[in-house]
Amino acid sequence: MATTVVAEDTGRARPRLGDRVFSRLALAAGIAILAALAGVFIFLAIEGVPGLSKPAEFYGSATSFWGYVAPLLFGTVLAAVIALVVAVPLAWGVALVVSHYAPKSIATPIAYVIDLLAAVPSVVFGLWGISVLARELQPAYVWLDENMGWLPFFAGPASGTGRTILTAGLVLAIMILPIITAISREVFAQTPRLHEEAALALGATRWEMIRMAVFPYARSGMVSAVMLGLGRALGETMAVAMVLSPGGGISLNLISSSNPASIASNIAANYKEGTPGKIQVLIATGLVLFLVTFLVNFAARWIVTRSERKLHR
Amino acid sequence: MAKSITVDSLDIYYGDFLAVEGVSMTIKARSVTAFIGPSGCGKSTFLRSLNRMHEVIPGARVEGKVMVDGQSLYDSAVDPVAVRRQIGMVFQRPNPFPTMSIYENVLAGNRLNSKKMKKSEADDVVERSLKGANLWNEVKDRLGKPGMGLSGGQQQRLCIARAIAVEPQVLLMDEPCSALDPISTSAIEDLIHELKTDYTIVIVTHNMQQAARVSDETGFFNLKAAGEPGHLVEFNSTQKMFANPDNEATEAYISGRFG
Predict the structure, then answer these.
(1) What is the pLDDT of residues A190-229, one digit of tens each?
(2) Rounded distance between C-alpha atoms, residue B98 and residue B78, angstroms
(3) Which CATH code is given to the segment(s) B5-254?
(4) Counting runs of H as helices and runs of E as strands, what totals does chain B give?
(5) Burial (0-12, 13-18, 19+ Cβ within 10 Å), A173
(6) CATH class, A54-311 region
(7) Which residues 64-103 on chain A approach chain B with CB closer than 8 angstroms?
(8) How confident is the model at residue A3 (pLDDT cuts 50, 70, 90)?
(9) Which of residues 104-133 of A touch B (CB under 8 A)?
(10) Which residues contact B152 (CB under 8 A, 6 or more apart)?
(11) Mean pLDDT of A222-248
């Protein structure tokens, strides 16, 4: 019978050439990413592991590798946290204005300017941070020290140059703003019209509609945006190396001159003059940064999937 | 609670484009009013202007009068958000909130209206609304499950439950059965019959049998010509519309000789 023949034909049919080519290309692209990541990890491990156990003189004032890397790691994370605390609410706010509040004639230029920020090289941000932001913020730090000194963050004494971890964090915040804004804007704008109208028809105000329909829909993308921003903040080298004047150990004091450097800026500052042994130590700190970034990403993903699974009980 | 709606020479615009022109009608309280007509004739647009959902589209506006029990809907002192809390709406495709459970979906509107609600009170509202939407028996054992896990027909009844949970004065339905199978459609139509004892219901439908089955009064919308605004051709009791309409065009449309 004709129908049987057709059925057998489709059963044996080979995938079209275009499908095969595309599926191989996609697979190759996926593998290339994994290979690059694995390559970086292997390089860091081979070159860095000897740096974990050098004689004490390689670690400067510290006596062991962990004593050496701990303040750097702390500085890295602190600067990134400051950047996120400042940038994330701002970025989501801007993204909402662009996607839901402003009329198109205003939203488009705003989105365009924010995207332009992403194209500014980090050296430029560093220069601006040193010569403008640090100078302008210095009196503010003095004020904070005098009036809010009871908070451990503003214990002072205020830095005379303004080149503190808080300044570095603020520069980082501006640098990660565009990426968080751009991704959040895209996911906000993709909220199905149907969900938004469901909320509006129940008598939700615009903000209530955003909370009921937009945020739940966009949550996963919002976390992705923050993670990309965090990744950039943790790894940013030049701006931090230029703005921050390092010195001192672990401290929550954000406005004094005793700030730990970040891992990346420390590598940049010391790589050129390093002896082979010293360089191994620096690479080992790079390995630590790599692993921390990985762990943070996994943790964030885990939190998101867990909260989503809770909904699908 | 149910209220009547009086519309007087309403023009509806999208920007400069006049979509619907000169509609006047009176929608009776505690009755079902159906709008029929070809696609693009402005039935849905008109429906959305009855709870000010029309204006959420940028540039959309209306001219003319809509009175709900004597209160003008488009008065400058009237907050559109408050209007939508009193005039519920059910959409063409079921749209439960995907991240909310069945329970939370039903309460979504109440949570907006009053922030604080006792657990027992909330339970009562959920049970009453789901019973009102003929969904209680099917979902009472899985209220904590996501609303998206239900079938299309159940999702639509969940949306109806969500709309009636806030005890609106009017319930607008925009082709509520067009994405549903015949059995779910029949369940929704039975529900409309029951709901009209408490609510004023306005329904847009493409299915003329449905209009004939569920409604007390029917309005026929049509375009004067391609590119011209839509308008109300005839508004009459459903019985008269389907047996002996006043207008020739209505008869042509209803009997399938359209054009």
Answers:
(1) 999 999 999 999 989 999 999 999 998 888 889 889 988 9
(2) 31
(3) 3.40.50.300
(4) 10, 10
(5) buried
(6) mainly alpha
(7) 103
(8) very low
(9) 104
(10) B94, B179, B180, B181, B184
(11) 86
